[in-house]
């Protein structure tokens, strides 16, 4: 274990720090040292090394000075004699509010007698995401460092923490578009939850990636030569191995046959402009024969969490199968760090952070985190029904998501297996209430049809329909649809 210094944290910042940013980080750093003086972790190291590690993670993913300062002090109110009021007096209300938000999230419990605490704390996390998403990003950084040092805990605690990381924190990182964070959380959890398969997959990857590595290196060299000939500037080009848990999921689909996993060895090409991405795709296909059906354009159709890139699988040197990913620097930052990559929030401006995030063109596009607001809305509507809350949460939040389009080209984000009725209510309650039919790609489909990614959905409505059909509750998937249907049926019942 390394001892993290102030210089390490400052040096990890992704952008050159202003004097103001350095000052607030420095003050919080020494404040944390004083607050945690004499405290130790299970590993035997000084406790203050934990908030230092959290701060370094936050710096690496591009968070601002105030967020890093809050990360440095996130355990102080709970574990020391220093109060939140003390922090507010010295650092101001914005930083204090973030520290308070992290403290209030508490310790999430997933199993046994602590289920009720888990549900309550999960509600707190949802509300925190809708109030100030920086609080949840601090919590993710906190969890990542705790997972890196999990070996010093008893086995039962290791399993509990690993399980909640896999089931709650990794999906949250994924929905925030934080690919690198998600992969690390999944791999670390996998190590404790299924050590046998973890070791098996690790050995398989090491063996097969080494076999492919020389072909990847050769392909990189050849692609560089071709791109130079065509005058396309390469920002960065490198090879990468697939994360272990992601590889395990792929292997399960292919009877654990690693030769059928085509993206085990991948080349990532980062270019300057979007147009360069498509030109690079042409250059790669001119050099190497592409596999039919293995080209995915996530630039024109991004994933639900905002991920953008072009993926293609080609027969590289000696006919070896290699995946190539092509993206701009901006797309790469967003793929690695997600919502944190958008953090152009100027801490000098006296402006509400939510106004900036949701309204400013330079901020995060509203659609990208609209689901956060939806989570809060439907959770408030469901109220205290814990069983339904959990069921809805797993459908709306933790399941895979798809994109569907309206005929006008608007994108609707839905959980996998969503139906036209879910689609209708995602647009507007009245459209759902008066839906009588649906067309997908101009063909009539039943209202319980499962929508597939990229389909164009048209909802047919009629004023003759006065209310939703109660039978819809048997097949709709989203809590938004269920809530609208129940509310409208109840309203009509009262009118009778």
Q: Could you explain the architecture of this structure?
A:
This protein has about 500 residues and is of the alpha+beta class. The chain folds into three domains: about 5-190, Orthogonal Bundle (Hypothetical protein af1432); about 195-335, 2-Layer Sandwich (Beta Polymerase, domain 2); about 375-495, Ubiquitin-like (UB roll), CATH 3.10.20. It is about 55% helix and about 10% strand. It contains 21 helices and eleven strands. The protein has helices at about 5-10, 20-35, 50-60, 65-70, 75-80, 85-90, 95-105, 115-130, 135-150, 155-175, 180-195, 195-230, 245-255, 275-285, 330-335, 355-360, 370-380, 385-400, 420-425, 430-435, 480-495; strands spanning about 235-240, 265-270, 290, 295, 310-315, 320-330, 400-405, 410-415, 435-440, 445, 455-460. The strands form three sheets. Strands 1, 2, 3, 4, 5 and 6 form a six-stranded mixed β-sheet that branches. A three-stranded antiparallel β-sheet has the order 10-9-11. Strands 7-8 form a two-stranded antiparallel ribbon. A hairpin with a 2-residue loop joins strand 9 (about 435-440) and strand 10. Helix 4 packs across helix 9 (about 135-150), helix 8 (about 115-130) crosses helix 9 and helix 9 (about 135-150) packs antiparallel against helix 10. The radius of gyration is 25 Å and the shape is globular. About 40% of the residues are buried.
């Amino acid at each position: 274990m390394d001892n993290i210094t102030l210089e390490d944290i400052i040096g990890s910042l992704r952008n050159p720090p202003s004097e103001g940013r350095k000052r607030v980080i420095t003050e919080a750093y020494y404040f944390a040292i004083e607050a945690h003086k004499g405290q130790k972790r299970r590993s035997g190291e000084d406790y203050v090394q934990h908030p230092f590690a959290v701060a370094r993670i936050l710096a690496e993913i591009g968070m601002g000075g105030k967020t890093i300062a809050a990360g440095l002090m996130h355990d102080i109110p709970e574990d020391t004699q220093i109060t939140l009021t003390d922090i507010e007096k010295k650092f101001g209300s914005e930083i204090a509010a973030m520290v308070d938000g992290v403290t209030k999230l508490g310790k999430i419990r997933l199993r046994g007698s602590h289920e009720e605490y888990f549900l309550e704390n999960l509600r707190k996390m949802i509300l925190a995401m809708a109030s100030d998403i920086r609080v949840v990003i601090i919590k993710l950084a906190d969890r990542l460092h705790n997972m890196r040092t999990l070996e010093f805990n008893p086995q039962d605690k290791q399993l509990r923490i690993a399980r909640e990381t896999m089931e709650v924190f990794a999906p949250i990182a994924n929905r925030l578009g934080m690919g690198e964070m998600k992969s690390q959380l999944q791999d670390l959890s996998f190590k404790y939850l299924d050590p046998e398969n973890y070791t098996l997959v690790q050995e398989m990857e090491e063996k097969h990636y080494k076999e492919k590595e020389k072909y990847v290196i050769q392909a990189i060299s050849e692609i560089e030569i071709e791109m130079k000939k065509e005058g396309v500037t390469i920002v960065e080009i490198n090879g990468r191995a697939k994360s272990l848990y992601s590889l395990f999921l792929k292997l399960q689909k292919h009877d654990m046959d690693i030769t059928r996993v085509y993206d085990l060895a991948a080349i990532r090409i980062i270019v300057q402009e979007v147009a360069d991405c498509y030109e690079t795709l042409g250059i790669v296909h001119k050099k190497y024969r592409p596999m039919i059906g293995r080209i995915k354009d996530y630039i024109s159709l991004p994933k639900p969490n905002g991920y953008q890139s072009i993926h293609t699988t080609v027969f590289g040197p000696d006919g070896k199968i290699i995946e190539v990913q092509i993206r701009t620097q901006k797309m790469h930052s967003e793929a690695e760090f997600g919502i944190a990559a958008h953090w152009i929030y100027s801490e000098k401006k006296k402006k509400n952070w939510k106004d900036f995030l949701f309204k400013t063109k330079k901020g995060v596009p509203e659609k990208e985190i609209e689901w956060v607001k939806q989570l809060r809305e439907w959770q408030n509507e469901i109220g205290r029904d814990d069983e339904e809350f959990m069921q809805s949460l797993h459908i709306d939040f933790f399941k895979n998501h798809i994109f569907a389009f309206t005929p006008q080209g608007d994108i609707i984000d839905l959980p996998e297996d969503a139906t036209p009725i879910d689609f209708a209510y995602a647009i507007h309650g009245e459209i759902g209430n008066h839906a009588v039919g649906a067309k997908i790609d101009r063909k009539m489909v039943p209202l319980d049809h499962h929508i597939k990614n990229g389909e164009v959905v048209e909802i047919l409505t009629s004023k003759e329909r006065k209310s939703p059909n109660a039978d819809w509750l048997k097949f709709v998937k989203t809590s938004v649809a269920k809530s609208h249907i129940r509310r409208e049926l109840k309203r009509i019942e009262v009118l009778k």
